[in-house]
Write a sequence for this structure.
């Protein structure tokens, strides 16, 4: 599976095109200890319509904005997880701006944001534009705890009480012009 994902990424990189991967739900309660998941550059880290107090889309223009659902993994409270960026790049403003191609750490955004707050606005930490982010949520998608930065480093997390989903997405607020993907390894630590 990993070789397949790497080959897919290489083909996409060679052709320099964005793909429109629909968000999938993965059940990490299955008898697997490790998953490689795809996070589309058009996926936000949470649904701003469900989490109104953490809205990052200007006037809820979700369809015109190009926002897709986050990559969602079903989890159990108390599980210990390790998340690790494996490979991939994303573009803000399509592939015509090579300076806006980045890995999961994102790039510093010096231009003003006219489309609303970035999701990282709701974290007490400076996070780069287009960086890989996540949050835990209940079964309806309501955030449990606080969103967090993932980036290029592996991070260890404990699933908080009340959380049934891990949601992964991109730190952006205008998604229609994004291209690319990240591949993330999720390990369950027993």
């Amino acid at each position: 599976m990993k070789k397949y994902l790497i080959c897919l990424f290489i083909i996409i990189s060679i052709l320099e095109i964005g793909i429109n991967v629909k968000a999938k739900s993965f059940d990490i309660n299955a008898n697997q200890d490790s998953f490689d998941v795809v996070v589309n550059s058009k996926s936000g880290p949470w649904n701003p319509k469900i989490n109104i107090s953490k809205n990052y889309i200007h006037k809820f223009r979700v369809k015109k904005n190009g926002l897709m659902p986050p990559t969602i993994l079903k989890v159990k409270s108390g599980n210990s997880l390790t998340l690790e960026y494996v490979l991939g790049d994303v573009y803000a403003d399509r592939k015509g701006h090579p300076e806006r191609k980045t890995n999961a750490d994102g790039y510093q955004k010096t231009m003003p944001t006219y489309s609303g707050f970035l999701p990282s606005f709701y974290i007490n930490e400076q996070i780069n534009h287009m960086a890989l982010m996540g949050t835990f949520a209940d079964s309806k998608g309501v955030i449990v705890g606080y969103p967090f930065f993932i980036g290029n480093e592996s991070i260890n997390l404990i699933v908080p009480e009340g959380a049934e989903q891990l949601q992964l997405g991109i730190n952006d607020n205008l998604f229609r012009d994004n291209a690319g993907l990240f591949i993330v390894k999720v390990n369950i630590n027993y």
In short: The chain has one domain: 2-189. Residues 10-24 have pLDDT under 50 and may be disordered. Helices lie at 2-15, 62-65. The two ends are 23 Å apart (CA to CA).
